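Why does residue order matter? Because the sequence determines the fold. Keep that principle in mind as you read this record.
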Amino acid sequence: MESTYKVIELVGTSSESWERAAQVALAEARRSLRDLRIAEVDALDINIDETGQVVAYRTKLKVSFKYAGTD
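Structure:
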């Protein structure tokens, strides 16, 4: 079977962890995209406030889903 997939980039944020940030991004993607296939972690970073405390964890994902183009 031949298929085509589209890849988009998403960034999720969480005050808890990078894993939770990824879950947040994927939960949002599931609301508007169908046939999600693979999520690849592209980058991890953190936001730090002026006192040096971690404010948020950020996970950048490349997410692929089956492409259903129009004829």
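Strands lie at 5-14, 36-48, 54-66.
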